[in-house]
Amino acid sequence: MNLIESMRVFVRAVERASISDAARDLGIGQSTASERVERLEKFVGCRLLLRSARTFKCTPEGQAFYKRSKTILLAASEAISEVSGDRQRTNGTTRIAAPYCFGEIVLPDLVQYLRTNFPQIGLSLILSDKVVDLVAEGVDIAFRIGSLGGGGFIAYPLGKVKRRLVASCAYLKRHESVATLSDLAAHSFIGVNGVFSTGQITLIGDAGIVESVLVRSEITASHWRPAYELIRMGIGIGVLEQHACAEALATGQFAELLPGFQIPALDLNLLIQAQRPVPQRVRTIVSILMSTVPKLLGENSQG
């Protein structure tokens, strides 16, 4: 049994309150994840998790083991970094996590740049809109959009991710125009799960006045791409991250609605584990990303 990997699965399962979600996050099968937890329980000689159709929680022993496991996973990561040190330089595989939209549109350009200039760097990309626990999931670097939340990490601000309220030009030819905030309620709103879940969107006017407006949230998707395609097909209007709709806006396929108002931008941060020393390959990549990402965001904000 690989004790460290079993502990990693256990920690992630506790934090996600689900074996299947933990398996998905870690890129392994659900049966493999369940087997690792079961072997871990046999190894320690007690039940760590209580699982049933309605319940998923730690036993008292499991809660204590969870806290210790988090500490051990961090210590293992630090130990590997310390002994590898300068010998590895920029060699080795770096695990980078990012939300789906950013990861699918912006990250490929960054990977191309990294591989062109540092071909010895191996990269493993993990895309998910869920909050990533860097230690539990063995992630070296993570892009986080929006609230930082808590956790043992160091955050480097990269700028803002702008968002646009858009519709396809074909849609606007068939429907009433959106000239005022109150007009939004007459249009079907297409969104991504968890975003604008209250049925309201926030806009900021030219004078800096913040307005909350009701929308008819009739279609939601768990991934940005179906939402984008439905907007493109003229099914409704929606809010997209700037890098997702920049090309469609530039070519005239999309039009921005209520250009006198802005959807609040989201903070973009680069996270690394709060470990010392930081591996050379991670320091190198972080340095490159901090210089290149703001430029990419600036390019995408045009048009």
Total discrete domains: 3
Tell me what portion of residues adopts beta-strand conformation.
25-35%
Mean pLDDT: 87
The profile of the biggest β sheet is: 11 strands, mixed
CATH topology of the largest domain: D-Maltodextrin-Binding Protein, domain 2
Number of strands: 13
Global geometry: globular
Assembly category:
single chain
The CATH H-level superfamily of the largest domain is Periplasmic binding protein-like II
In angstroms, what is the radius of gyration?
22 Å
- Cα(first) to Cα(last) distance is 54 Å
pLDDT < 50 runs, ≥5 residues? none
Which series of helices and strands comes N to C?
Answer: HHHEEHEHHEEEHEEEEHEHEEH
Query: How much helical structure, as a percent, in the residues?
Result: 40-55%
Please tally the helical runs, counting DSSP H or I stretches of 4 or more residues.
10
CATH architectural designation of the largest domain: 3-Layer(aba) Sandwich
The top level CATH class name of the largest domain: Alpha Beta
Which class of secondary structure composition applies to the elements? alpha/beta
Domain HTH lysR-type: 1-59
InterPro entries: LysR-type_TF_proteobact-type, LysR_HTH_N, LysR_subst-bd, WH-like_DNA-bd_sf, WH_DNA-bd_sf
Protein name: LysR family transcriptional regulator
GO molecular function, one term: sequence-specific DNA binding
